[in-house]
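Quick one, probably user error.
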């Protein structure tokens, strides 16, 4: 059953796109066989609304870092250095 589903996934025309569907279209290739086009991605520009929302979220987390550190320490039992790392990592993910 799994092998059939794996084979069936090769027949899907995979597409990843921003919500507005606008941007630059480029093919996505199988890294093991560049003749195999897995699908396409529509890359958006940094000015897209999604990017702006993610930047605002990162800014908000940065501004509230001490508050978030307390939450992470209580909720997950993290030490202060580990909590700082967790929050910084979340901010990095939002920015990049």
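Nope, works fine. Designed sequence:
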């Amino acid at each position: 059953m799994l092998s059939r589903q794996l084979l069936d996934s090769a027949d899907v025309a995979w597409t990843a796109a921003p919500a507005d569907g606008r941007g630059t279209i480029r093919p996505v290739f199988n890294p093991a066989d560049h003749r195999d086009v897995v699908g396409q991605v529509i890359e958006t520009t940094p000015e897209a609304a999604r990017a702006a929302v993610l930047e605002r979220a990162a800014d908000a987390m940065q501004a509230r870092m001490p508050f978030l550190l307390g939450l992470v320490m209580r909720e997950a039992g993290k030490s202060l250095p580990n909590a700082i790392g967790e929050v910084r990592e979340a901010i990095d993910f939002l920015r990049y």
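The chain has four helices and three strands.
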